Amino acid sequence: xxxxxxxxxxxxxxxxxxxxxxxxxxxxxxxxxxxxxxxxxxxxxxxxxxxxxxxxxxxxxxxxxxxxxxxxxxxxxxxxxxxxxxxxxxxxxxxxxxxxxxxxxxxxxxxxxxxxxxxxxxxxxxxxxxxxxxxxxxxxxxxxxxxxxxxxxxxxxxxxxxxxxxxxxxxxxxxxxxxxxxxxxxxxxxxxxxxxxxxxxxxxxxxxxxxxxxxxxxxxxxxxxxxxxxxxxxxxxxxxxxxxxxxxxxxxxxxxxxxxxxxxxxxxxxxxxxxxxxxxxxxxxxxxxxxxxxxxxxxxxxxxxxxxxxxxx
Length: 313
Ligand code: GLU
Hints:
With 313 residues, the protein is of the alpha/beta class. Helices cover 31% and strands 16% of the residues. The strands form 5 sheets. The chain has a 3-stranded parallel beta sheet with strand order 1-2-3. The chain has a 3-stranded antiparallel beta sheet with strand order 4-5-8. The longest helix has 16 residues, at 25-40. It has helices spanning 25-40, 61-71, 87-99, 110-116, 169-172, 187-197, 213-222, 259-273, 287-297; strands at 12-15, 44-49, 81-82, 103-106, 145-148, 154-159, 163-168, 176-179, 202-206, 229-233, 236-237, 308-309. Helix 1 (25-40) crosses helix 9, helix 6 (187-197) packs across helix 7 and helix 8 (259-273) packs parallel to helix 9 (287-297). It binds glutamic acid.
């Protein structure tokens, strides 16, 4: 494992956007939430661009995200990490899982799995892999993805915002993919390898990833990594409670918003979204001053548990 910015004992948080579209209100909330948790604990805050899923990556968006964050006053520690440059490191982790007898090659296509598997897990589009290739690929099938073996055990953790969350992986997803058939390493593997390598001990992100966390904790255990603390933030919804599309709520430079004018107001609204109560005298203040106030007065207990629309800016 390499060590990027490891600081024993101190808090290390991170923001890890995927450059598949401009920064949006949800990512602004994730950036701010992770920043407040880390900086309030006098910790480091790292930035990682999750550009591993190359076909979905939009050229130029990563730079746009960095420029947007800078204008909004966010200062990150150390170098930005790009997942697209870390294939060898993910490969080492995959090899370790293979050597431990925990990873195997699977020859099943999605449609084959969908035909055999029981109905998708309620509330998700996830299909439980029925383990067909666990003991070797069936004759005539081509090697496709790597999967990790899971067992019938409860994985449970105390989320800093959402409370206790538990899952049995055999029931929620089955042996899951860690390297996809089309080549890239799966998000779950990359995220745990990178968090461990960077010494991240606080994972703060949107609650759409709450259900992914048990898979990540499972991989951390298999790979012998320390377990970070988790806090999953409420999601930004449309006025009717529906999920917002990334395009509709873009806040980046790419969306032609004059962030030099609007940035401070956006940050104040994001603070209010997270249950913080910035004082009126901050209206019109530069973003950095608003962030400094947020860090100093941050109270994680006030973060709402339920998703809601973004307050008026
Ligand atoms: N890259 C993910 C996203 O943009 C976040 C991953 C994480 O924070 O673990 O939704």
